[in-house]
């Protein structure tokens, strides 16, 4: 029986994506195992965001297929993907700025009071939000503040922690630490590490910072010209090896200019 338990939660098989004459993805083969954190590295324009947008149901692939929990799956929209347990955190769209922290934690999933549909149980939401943020190690001044008053890092950390409540099976993070300082990035990486310890959610994270990828990821994939050209557990490679690879590709590309 053991070998019949699926280990891949999500696979992309021979995915290609064109926008008119632009080929963003040529042939993507990616697998995401249960509970793992997979890092995607790659040059600007390599196709990382396009791939994430396909995995989150935002774009339809031109060809190829997605396999979710061992079933070939067509994602019709972002909300369809979300209903299956595939969540993405995009930098700006993650939270509603004017709304307080604890209500943001329950966006789209507000608990209702005593069965009266539509009446939000504020006290429950507030208490659960405090408990979860505490468990995830997210430190913020108050859950009663609108998120507009928080730093970018705190906002991202809340959005990532929230995926626990959304019962996400797959969490997709496109450059969650972009334009953030060391301390702010650390906040988010800590939350990712805690999520990983909880073991329920598999995560794909895009970052340009190799050290961050090596800190939190179990495996690393390199995306080049719309294909995955390198796939290795982080324990079996090194920042140096990947940097050497990227530098040598860069040099040979320059030589042909
Ligand atoms: N909606 C779109 N319409 C047309 N072309 C697009 C669209 N989205 C992406 N592309 C093109 O597809 C290619 C891959 O872009 P993508 O955003 O996936 O790269 P990326 O790896 O995320 O880069 P970066 O590291 O700079 O974020 C680029 O050539 C880009 O211009
Ligand atoms: Mg991108």
What does this structure look like?
This protein is α/β, with parallel strands linked by helices and 257 residues long. It has a domain at 8-93 and 168-255: P-loop containing nucleotide triphosphate hydrolases (Rossmann fold, 3-Layer(aba) Sandwich). The protein is 35% helix and 26% strand. It has eight helices and ten strands. The strands form two sheets. It has a six-stranded mixed β-sheet with strand order 6-7-8-3-9-10, with helices on both faces. Strand 4 (63-68) and strand 5 (71-73) form a beta hairpin. Helix 5 packs parallel to helix 6. The radius of gyration is 19 Å and the shape is globular. The N and C termini lie far apart (55 Å). It binds adenosine-5'-triphosphate and magnesium ion. Residues 48-49 line the site of magnesium ion.
Shape summary: globular
User: What's the CATH H-level superfamily name of the domain at 8-93 and 168-255?
Assistant: P-loop containing nucleotide triphosphate hydrolases
What string, H for helix and E for strand, traces the elements in order? EEEHEEHEHHHEHEHEEH
User: What is the name of the CATH class of the domain at 8-93 and 168-255?
Assistant: Alpha Beta
Number of helices: 8
CATH topology of the domain at 8-93 and 168-255: Rossmann fold
Radius of gyration in whole Å, from Cα? Answer: 19 Å
Model regions low in confidence, pLDDT < 50 over at least 5 residues: none
The structure class reads alpha/beta
